[in-house]
Predict the structure.
Amino acid sequence: MPTTPYIDGFLLRTNSQGDSLWLRHYWYTDSIMNDGTGLFYDVTPTSDGGFIAVGTMLGSIAGNDPPGASQDVWVLKV
């Protein structure tokens, strides 16, 4: 686990029957954003068999803002 404030998100891959193939947990670290949540809004397959996930992190800047008041974009290639 990172030592700086972190925000996490999950990706779950399933087969056509809905059975879990894998679950991955991703950490977004930021030295000033804390008290947050990572959200993936869209996941698209790539030609190499991987995925691109896009989303956002919602948090507060060093505790000075209400939770969720600050946002960063999150782009992840898996």
User: Anything to note?
Assistant: The mean pLDDT is 77.
